[in-house]
Design goal:
Elements: H1 2-26, H2 36-42, H3 47-53, H4 57-83, H5 89-109, H6 111-118, H7 124-142, H8 151-175, H9 181-200
Helix pairs in contact: 1-4, 1-6, 4-5, 4-7, 5-9, 7-8
Length: 201
C-alpha cells in the first residue's frame, strides 16, 4: 500500500511537470512544433516516461483543457447554488460579482496555464468552449429577468456578454497589467449591468 502511494505521487508529480512544460512552450510556439523530446528534456525525463502517461502531446493538451473546464464549471456551479438560495435579483447579482472575483483569482493563480490556453498558440476551440460554458450555465437563470426582449434576442445578448467577458480576461492575462481580479470583475460587471455608454459617461 505504501509503495502504491509512492507510485501515485510520482505519477501525479510527473504529469504536473509535463502539463507545466507544455503550457510554457505553448506560450512561444504552436503545438504542431512542440516535440515529445523537447518536453522530456525540459523536465529531465525520457521519452518512454512521457508515453507511459500519454499517447501524444495532443492528449496531454486535451487533459489540461478538460481539467481547466471542470474547474471553471465547479466555480460556476458553486456560485449558482449560492444565488439560488435567494429570489431577490439584486442579491443574485451580488453573488455574481463575488463569483467573478473568486473566478478571476483562480485564473490569476493559474495564470501561466490559462494564459497559454487563451494565447495565440492555444486551441481556438477551447476558447469557444469557455464561452459556451458561461452561456449554458448562466443563460437560463437570467431568462426571467430579460425585460421586454424576445428569447432569441436575449440569446444574442448573452452570447455577446459571454464572448466579451472571455476576451476581457484574455487581454488581461496577455497584457501583464497591475489590474487585480477585483478590478477586472468590476469592469465586467459594469459592462454587463450598464453597457458601454453607461461606463463612458
Amino acid at each position: 500500500m505504501v509503495e502504491t502511494k509512492k507510485i501515485d505521487r510520482r505519477v501525479k508529480k510527473t504529469k504536473k511537470q509535463l502539463k507545466k512544460a507544455l503550457t510554457t512552450l505553448l506560450q512561444i510556439k504552436p503545438i504542431q512544433k512542440i516535440k515529445v523530446n523537447e518536453l522530456a528534456e525540459l523536465i529531465d525525463i525520457n521519452r518512454g516516461t512521457f508515453y507511459q502517461h500519454y499517447t501524444d502531446i495532443y492528449k496531454l493538451l486535451e487533459e489540461i483543457e478538460n481539467d481547466t473546464l471542470q474547474d471553471f464549471k465547479s466555480f460556476i456551479d458553486e456560485a449558482k447554488n449560492k444565488a439560488s438560495d435567494h429570489d431577490n435579483y439584486e442579491i443574485t447579482q451580488l453573488h455574481f460579482e463575488n463569483f467573478l472575483v473568486t473566478f478571476l483569482t483562480y485564473i490569476q493563480d493559474n495564470k501561466e496555464t490559462i494564459k497559454a490556453l487563451f494565447g495565440p498558440y492555444g486551441d481556438r476551440s477551447f476558447f469557444l468552449k469557455v464561452q459556451d460554458l458561461i452561456k449554458e450555465q448562466w443563460l437560463n437563470d437570467h431568462l426571467n429577468h430579460k425585460g421586454n426582449i424576445t428569447d432569441q434576442q436575449f440569446h444574442y445578448l448573452f452570447a455577446y456578454f459571454a464572448a466579451g467577458s472571455v476576451e476581457v480576461i484574455r487581454i488581461w492575462l496577455q497584457s501583464e497589467t497591475n489590474d487585480s481580479p477585483e478590478d477586472i470583475a468590476k469592469l465586467i460587471e459594469s459592462i454587463n449591468r450598464y453597457g458601454l455608454n453607461g461606463i463612458l459617461k
